[in-house]
User: What shape does this take?
Amino acid sequence: MNCKTLLVKNQMLELNRVVAYLDELGEEWELSVPLVFSLNLVVEEALTNIILYGFDDQLEHTIEIDFKNDLDQLYITFIDDGIAYDPTLKEDPDISLSTEDRQIGGLGIFLIKKIMDKVEYKRKENKNFLILTKNIIV
Amino acid sequence: MNVEVFKTEEYVLVSVEGRVDTTNAGEFEKTMMGILEEGALRIVLDCTALNYISSSGLRVFLVVQKKMMASKGHFSLCSLQPGIKEIFDISGFSSIFTIFPHKEAAIKG
Assistant: This one.
């Protein structure tokens, strides 16, 4: 099993570093272009939520992102020491609404749920663990 | 992200290139709001070179669509890459936007 870990600070500009990292990871693990696109999206959505809403202080925090690849599945785990928040409990937006009635925002977690095959959350030792699994079709 | 704006008497053509994500969606929104404030009644957003969008970018698209509908204007998109189209399908955006395969068709409306 391939394993890699990326540590990022709770600053939005870290996203640029994450994008470059995912491109490299995609090449190293020989992931398809659509899969790397999906990874970019779910990592950005999860990380944005953690950075923007996860902390109730002004301190610097480190967010750990673990990537694992065992040939037919890819796992991404986000670990942060922010406030307890289970995104799997968030209600899905109603995507059948008309333009006038559609809410602005609220799509991030929904996209993660739709793109990934499994989304799990755990709270352990005052940390949030968000575990995303994607089945890789070879 | 790079945004180019081309104005004629009939329409405003906006071409967006690269990524629209959390780091630059604010900048993209500012550009689009500037065009709306000038009273544009037909805006075509050419997505030929848009190769990534996240929920922050989708949010801006929806804001523009709502404002254009309120002002009885026309906002259409064209030339979505397959990955972008998939995100539009997943989020239900394919049914709230008018999407054309090519720029020429979008301009004609």
